[in-house]
Amino acid sequence: MRNPIYLESCLLLIWLWSQQILADFNSYVVPQPHAQRDHRQDISQHYDYLMEENDEPLGRGAARNKYRSTHGQAPSRPEMSESENFVQSNTESVFSSGETRDFLQFLRRIQYDHRQVPENEEGEATYVEVSVVVSNIRAVSEVTMDYAIELFYRESWRDPRLRYDRKLFKNKTELALHESYTNFLWFPDTFVPNAIASKNPQRNSISHRSLLRLDETGKLLYSRRISLVCECTMDLTLFPFDKQLCKLGIESYGYTADHVVYKWSKGARTALELKKIRLPDFTIQEAYVTSQMESYATGNYSRLYVCFVFSRSSGFCFLQLIIPSTAVVITSWVSLWMETETEFQDMISIILAITFLIFSYNEMMPRVSYIKAMDIYLGVCFMIVFLSLIKLALVKYMRQKIMLTSDSGNSIREMSQMSTRQRLRARKASSMNFRNNTGSTIPASEETQQMLTVPNGTNGLHGEDKEANNNSGKSHISDMLEIRITQRTMHRFHWVSQMLFFFGFVIFCLFYFLIYPNLHIVSIDPACDKVLAEWFAEIY
């Protein structure tokens, strides 16, 4: 029998051998995780350090000494892998090669301070030339009274501190700088006073980028793409034949006119340029620029204005409001021409239709306290339909009156015919009684006596004549006060009222579409006075 100690040692060796094989396999197939350094943080740290060193107006090495005094030693490049070194080298290449490296050295040498406003030799204010290219106007809303605009904003100014010798930059008269230099050069604090929202893109966005150039005379050109939503106060008195004036203001937020003055660009870069723009509800009639001084409690500020004149395209209102309301009015007339088959339920349905149009129109319009042109048209249509209902009620009343008059005339005629028969019958009975010569009288029946007492008495006839004469005087006065309604009168009233409705509505439409839009005087905004316009853009 073998020693158990021997067996245990063999099993232990086998287990160790299997564990070694498994560890070798895992190290080959699945690499062991190791502590990974956040290279983004290292790159950001190195970027901030490099930018701080380039931005310090104290000269070369100021940022390094500052870092050493804070952390006890100068910053050292962290050890990175080959891929990390590739990313780091690309980031540093922006600031350590070509024109950018020479420009950084130039800024350190002149000890440039980006917080200081440029000053010329005469001590005058810095003039900022502005040029605007409108690429699109997405919407003009009368409900919220605003409009969305996309534009390329360009501003140019001269900074005497940035004059350079072209020999330092390989005889180049103009330098194309990276957009990150906007943090290290002085820029005017431009803002739009009537903007209520703006699209702020992320850094290095593909849709919103910027351009920065510097020439040898120290003149900077900065261009960027901007998306804004600006307010536009509208006067809807002539809706849907109105014209709206919307403006875009540009001014400095913190620098008064003593330091910064804005003016429109002239020469190769025009002040305002419009691309081909198509709007669903408006057409751009005019576009021009003006400038003026604005006074605030903090001082006088230079402001520029871009003015747009929008003319409304009323096709939507014609299709959705004017044509349906006109059709409802014509329908009410057709129903009145067929008055024998028209009931009040039909006219009430027509009134409900025009009421629905009015409510649907009010839902899509802002709540204003004045009357709009569209309100007048819909109100006239509603009034005509309502008067048509009143006319239908009058025609129904006349027809019933004529029917009652004709029925009463027939009954009187029948009664007169019956009284004549009774008189003839009584005369025959009396003549038969007088011809009887036998001396004995034949007693008349009760029916004959009743018939004799009514027609034959002369006193009765005279009494009836007296009562008729008394009643005739009263009826004559009532006839004087009462209008006689005949079939001819009803037809004449019906025809005259229909002609009045038709020609009255036609005259109103001619006045509404041809004359009324020109009666209203549009107020002129003093900021967008055409007399003070400096440039008119071409409309495509």
TrEMBL record:
Transmembrane region(s): 318-337, 344-361, 376-394, 493-515
Keywords, alphabetical: Cell membrane, Ion channel, Ion transport, Membrane, Signal, Transmembrane, Transmembrane helix, Transport
Region spans: Disordered: 59-94
Annotated localization: Cell membrane; Membrane
Neurotransmitter-gated ion-channel ligand-binding domain span: 109-312
GO CC list: plasma membrane
InterPro entries for this protein: GABAA/Glycine_rcpt, Neur_chan_lig-bd, Neur_chan_lig-bd_sf, Neur_channel, Neuro-gated_channel_TM_sf, Neuro_actylchol_rec, Neurotrans-gated_channel_TM, Neurotransmitter_ion_chnl_CS
Pfam families reported in the protein's UniProt record: Neur_chan_LBD, Neur_chan_memb
Domain Neurotransmitter-gated ion-channel transmembrane: 321-475
CDD domains found in the cross-reference section: LGIC_ECD_GABAAR, LGIC_TM_anion
Signal peptide per UniProt: 1-23
Annotated GO MF terms: extracellular ligand-gated monoatomic ion channel activity; transmembrane signaling receptor activity
PANTHER family linked to this entry: NEUROTRANSMITTER GATED ION CHANNEL
Family: Belongs to the ligand-gated ion channel (TC 1.A.9) family.
Protein name: Neurotransmitter-gated ion-channel ligand-binding domain-containing protein
Organism from which the protein derives: Caenorhabditis latens
